[in-house]
Design brief:
Elements lengths: L2 H9 L4 E9 L2 E8 L3 E4 L2 E5 L5 E5 L6 H16 L10 H15 L1 E2 L2 H23 L4 E3 L4 E3 L2 H10 L3
Parallel strand pairs: 3-6
Antiparallel strand pairs: 1-2, 2-3, 4-5, 7-8
Helix pairs in contact: 2-3
């Protein structure tokens, strides 16, 4: 497989000025220098399948709290632009999120990783909302945390989460 084909698979574009694969312990690190910014692909395992095609398996995405916050801000921005249907973002919206996230963090996650994070955040939000609806739980804005008495927490834990 040539570099141009790898660019399309990993970067989603052939428009890079320079791209390189560097050997690592668990595969390769892909570096793409586009006309506007530098993006690093996550470490990837590159292997040949039976048809001698390269299969790329990115490492699981790791997110810092600041990256999660940025991701949420980017999603809100796309909602305001009208790039979200009833339950998910349009292709244009996802592309914008991916591109801006890479520009600001120099990390390139694939669409599946962004969608997984979106679903994780939605689940956390739903769990959080349910907790606040339970009797005895309140939101403390100064501390940015949920508060309840020890008895309320013990009772909630006894009956089980969710």
């Amino acid at each position: 497989m040539c570099m141009e084909q790898l660019l399309v698979l990993v970067c989603g574009s052939r428009d890079c000025c320079m791209a390189s694969l560097f050997p690592g312990l668990n595969g390769f690190l892909f570096v793409c220098l586009s006309q506007s910014n530098l993006c690093f692909g996550s470490k990837m395992a590159l292997r040949l399948n039976e048809g001698d095609e390269v299969e790329i398996e990115p490492d699981p995405a790791t997110w810092t709290a600041l990256e999660e916050e940025l991701y949420i801000q980017l999603m809100v921005k796309e909602v305001h632009k009208g790039n979200r249907s009833s339950t998910t973002f349009s292709r244009k919206g996802w592309k914008q999120i991916e591109q801006e996230f890479c520009e600001k963090t120099n990390k390139r996650y694939n669409n599946s990783q962004f969608r997984n994070k979106f679903n994780q955040l939605r689940t956390r939000f739903n769990d959080f909302s349910k907790l606040l609806k339970e009797p005895g739980f309140t939101w403390e804005p100064v501390l940015s945390t949920v508060t309840a008495t020890d008895a309320v927490w013990e009772s909630y834990i006894k009956i089980g989460f969710r």
